[in-house]
Amino acid sequence: MHKTPSGSSLGPGGLDLTQTFFKPINHAAPPSPTKRHTKISVIGTGNVGMAIAQTILTQDFVEELALVDAKADKLRGEMLDLQHAAAFLPRTKILASVDYAVTAGSDLCIVTAGARQIAGESRLNLLQRNLSLFKAIIPPLVKYSPDCILLIVANPVDILTYVAWKLSGLPSNRIIGSGTNLDSSRFRFLLADHLDVNAQDVQAYIVGEHGDSSVALWSSISVGGVPILSFLEKHQIAYEKETLESIHKEVVDSAYEVISLKGYTSWAIGYSAANLARSILRDQRKIHPVSVLAKGFYGIDGGDVFLSLPAQLGRGGVLGVTNIHLNEEESHRLRNSAKTILEVQSQLGI
User: Fold this and answer.
1) How far apart are the C-alpha atoms of 171 and 149, rounded to whole Å?
2) Which of 79, 102, 271, 281 could connect to 96 by a Cys-Cys bridge, CB 3.0–4.6 Å?
3) Catalytic residue of the set 2, 84, 194, 210
4) Which residues, at least 6 apart from 236, have a Cβ–Cβ distance to it below 8 Å?
5) Do β-strands 64-68 and 39-43 pair in parallel, antiparallel, or remain unpaired?
6) pTM for the complete prediction?
């Protein structure tokens, strides 16, 4: 697939006009060798992939963006559509190809491509199809970008992050799943809505599986630095556990509601993935609840499993896992969430 040239060959026979258009600086020093050229590749140009790409382009932290998809015509159309917005966006070189060579030298590869569930299809059969798909995606990404970090967004994200780890041969700190980063954003929004405060002032995490067995860490929620539950107890303000559970259930069900209304989710996961990409590539060292290799943390054992824990992210990928205090019930639910993932994962034979 041909990509639109971005050079200055506008003259006859492709003559380079740069030297005519610009007068060179005498005795100019070459660019600093420490200056980074940041590149992101997005695999899959469906609704989610393009929402991620569009959001990344607006945030001005990448010099080159490569798109890969199996559908050549749609891929070229998406590339051209983004390129035509160049006058309204920070300068970014946008490439697209069905050939994974276009991803060469990527700092971060974001994988959104995944098989969709067919009506009546078992979860295991869907996973097997996604495993086959990942066998065609992950090895070439690592071949062309051996020093990259992989960010997996395709669902079921925890198991596919494990699959990507196994297929890539990369160290576990360079394999990250988008996990419950978006779930936690939804959680913070709902809590902020209940309390009539800004969501950015709410500190709250959903951990565990990105799915039905996720765990809301109520014991560590704070608003403006004030721990909510301990505050209520100290002032003898009654609250019902059922109310807390209903908020968590609303978080779990929210994606299904969006899908039932518009057919898919895109914008929220686009912002979530772009937020993770920025934290990683700008070495922000921010804490995000993302899917990481969880064995050995919070009493999780029994096998290698990826699930969401509050992790510090930077240029090295996962820099560490936050040691948040969990009460006994939360610890029990988190370990059960790990078991749920392991039970399904064990059937893949990888």
Assistant:
1) 10
2) 79
3) 210
4) none
5) parallel
6) 0.89
